């Protein structure tokens, strides 16, 4: 066994190297994110999901609680890829990459674009169908029943109800059973677009440029197809029936 160096200089160099090795992970973590104990960070999990608070810094550890985006947490210590934190008087560990120094913006809720088919029937009860009623009341006459995924054109919001058109029938449905989507074309619908870069497309009263313009339709609106034939397509948009050049629909 080698004897410990007797030189004072050698002993100091070895001691300095040892201290540097011990502190390197902690210092690196702090330098990388600029996070110090006492810092306030905010939950910023992927896709606006919740972030788990665990009893130890690993994914197998018991989950103490789960917090939504924007929840402030206080950093107590840096533990490699994890932070020891305090949240609402609970102490545990969270994954460092999902904590942000700035509070994330709240997600923008999907809202209906009235007069465009940007919604579908979405009843959480398996096998159930959505009732289309004559008036905005559960006691009203049922005009039809529709399965999940059926496209819905929303015309108006009335309290907890929507005035809609489904498969050509007008009536009212409970808003909580209609899911607003991003407006991708669905069965029986085509999306209005302008290949020339304009923001409007003309809805005409007949199948040709010689017919008067019934309405100017904004691009990205979904048009309900009544008759798709050749150069012109007969559609319904916001209750108006007319023709759009097929080159302006996709």
> Count of helices?
1
**Helical content class:** 10-25%
Strand content: 35-45%
End-to-end CA span: 81 Å
**What's the overall average pLDDT, rounded?**
76
At the first level of CATH, the class of the largest domain is: Mainly Beta
Specify the biggest β-sheet.
Answer: 5 strands, antiparallel
Shape: elongated
CATH homologous superfamily identity of the largest domain: SH3 Domains
Structural class: mainly beta
User: Spans of 5+ residues with little confidence (pLDDT < 50)?
Assistant: 19-32
Which CATH architecture of the largest domain?
Roll
Radius of gyration using CA atoms only: 30 Å
What is the domain total for the residues? 3
- CATH topology grouping of the largest domain: SH3 type barrels
The total beta strand count reads 20
Give the strand line-up of the largest sheet: 6-5-4-1-7
What pattern of helices and strands is seen along the backbone?
Answer: HEEEEEEEEEEEEEEEEEEEE
Folded structure, characterized:
This protein has 250 residues and is mainly beta. The protein has one helix spanning 8-33; strands at residues 40-43, 51-54, 63-67, 72-79, 82-87, 90-95, 99-100, 119-121, 130-133, 142-146, 151-158, 161-166, 169-174, 178-180, 189-191, 200-204, 213-218, 222-229, 232-237, 240-245. It folds into three domains: 8-100, SH3 type barrels (Roll); 119-180, SH3 type barrels; 189-248, SH3 Domains (SH3 type barrels, Roll), CATH 2.30.30. Strands 6-5-4-1-7 form a five-stranded antiparallel sheet. Strands 13-12-11-8-14 form a five-stranded antiparallel sheet, with no helix packed on it. Strand 2 (51-54) and strand 3 (63-67) form a beta hairpin. The chain is elongated, with a radius of gyration of 30 Å.
């Amino acid at each position: 066994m080698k004897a410990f160096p007797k030189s004072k200089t050698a002993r100091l160099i070895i001691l300095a190297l040892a201290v540097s090795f011990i502190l390197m992970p902690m210092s690196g973590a702090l330098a990388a994110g600029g996070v110090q104990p006492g810092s306030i960070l905010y939950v910023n999990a992927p896709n606006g999901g919740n972030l788990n608070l665990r009893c130890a810094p690993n994914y197998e550890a018991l989950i103490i609680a789960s917090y939504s985006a924007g929840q402030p947490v206080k950093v107590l210590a840096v533990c490699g890829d994890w932070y020891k934190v305090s949240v609402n008087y609970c102490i545990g560990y969270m994954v460092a990459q999902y904590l942000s120094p700035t509070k994330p913006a709240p997600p923008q809720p999907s809202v209906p674009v009235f007069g465009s088919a940007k919604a579908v029937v979405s009843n959480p009860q398996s096998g159930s169908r959505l009732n289309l009623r004559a008036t905005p009341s559960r006691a009203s006459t049922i005009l039809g029943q529709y399965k999940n995924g059926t496209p819905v054109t929303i015309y108006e919001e009335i309290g907890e109800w929507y005035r809609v058109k489904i498969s050509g029938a007008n009536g009212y449905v409970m808003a909580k059973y209609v899911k607003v989507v991003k407006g991708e074309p669905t069965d029986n619908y085509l999306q209005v677009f302008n290949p020339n870069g304009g923001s409007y497309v003309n809805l005409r009263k007949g199948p040709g440029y010689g017919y008067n313009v019934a309405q100017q339709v904004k691009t990205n609106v979904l048009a309900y197809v009544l008759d798709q034939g050749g150069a012109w397509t007969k559609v319904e948009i916001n209750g108006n029936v007319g023709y759009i050049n097929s080159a302006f629909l996709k």
